[in-house]
Amino acid sequence: MTAVGIGLIGAGVISDTYLENLASFPDTEVLIIGDLDQDRARVQAEKHGVPAHGSADDVLAHPDVRLVVNLTIPAAHIEVSRAAIAAGKHVWSEKPLGLDRASATSLLAEADAAELRVGSAPDTLLGPGFQAARRAIEEGLIGRPLFAHTAFQTQGPDLWHPNPAFLFAQGAGPLLDMGPYYFSALVSLFGSVDRVAAVGMKSREEREIRTGPNAGSLFPVEVPSTIQVVTAFESGQQAHSLLSFDSALERHGVLEVHGTEGSIVLPDPNRFDGRIEFVRPLGVLRDGMSFEQPWIEVEHREYEVGRGLGALDMVRAIAEGRPHVASGELGLHVLDVLLSAQESAQTGETVAVKSSVAPVPLVPEGFDPLAPTV
């Protein structure tokens, strides 16, 4: 068995967790790190024991790299991913897959023509928490699923980020920054989205940097800092999602599914594991009876997880000839949903989602990231 060679492009903060996890998987080996700032690539390579470093072109030219992990900024995702496909490499991209439908669609078409694969974050979908909850729902734990509720509420990244302006600019905001986690989970549970309706707002037109060397400086808010989305799925289910950078109440990771025979709380879709509990309906209430419902825990198997799990699944899926879980097609459909929600908030109209995606596969039973398989 031989580990699959990986080249990583983008040596920013998130690269640390990718490098740590990819080094721990017997099936993957990071051979080279590339970045526009080649000194930063060198520092990360030395820190994590990666044998080579350089530019993005150096990664693409490496003869033993089979999969490129694209950790560049969102505006560069498509450009870097297309270059990797042109170089004959499979691609795993951080979220979102791209910032517009046309370029993301072209990327997938180019990969298909080259018989190469594209994967897209988030890979929290592969975590044991979400996988166990999804299996429980599909096995009928709560009867027929009817609707879901998700929520992400925070005061905003300007509370802690020293350079937060990009998170309030076009292509970001809570919808495109955090939305991929929640809507990827919903599409994995319910399938393709048919239409969306949304309303958005800005709490103010400018915000203040709170920390770091630029503290006290103002920056513009270009997109809604709070958005609420109602989603209708082709399968008949519905969902309501709140994403906000304006909430005094910090509440993250709310993902609930309500069915004909119960309700289940799933783990935070930005994490790989967490609380899975459900409640049964109360039944008939009589005078003096309590409304209290006992929570029942869903036990599940745990395994080593972290960013990079989606790339590992791609490596194994290619070797086994099966679909990988966090596919480019899923990333494209979620992008389409998010952009449709953005358009709905701008126009006040319900927007039909034009794309669709095949049912998202489950992680194979017995999946063990630390077992050598390829």
Automatic annotation (TrEMBL):
The keyword NAD applies. Residues 5-118 form the Gfo/Idh/MocA-like oxidoreductase N-terminal domain. Residues 130-265 form the GFO/IDH/MocA-like oxidoreductase domain. InterPro entries: Gfo/Idh/MocA-like_OxRdtase_N, Gfo/Idh/MocA_oxidrdct_glycsds, GFO_IDH_MocA-like_dom, NAD(P)-bd_dom_sf. The keyword NAD applies. Keywords: NAD, Oxidoreductase. This is Gfo/Idh/MocA family protein. It comes from Microbacterium insulae.
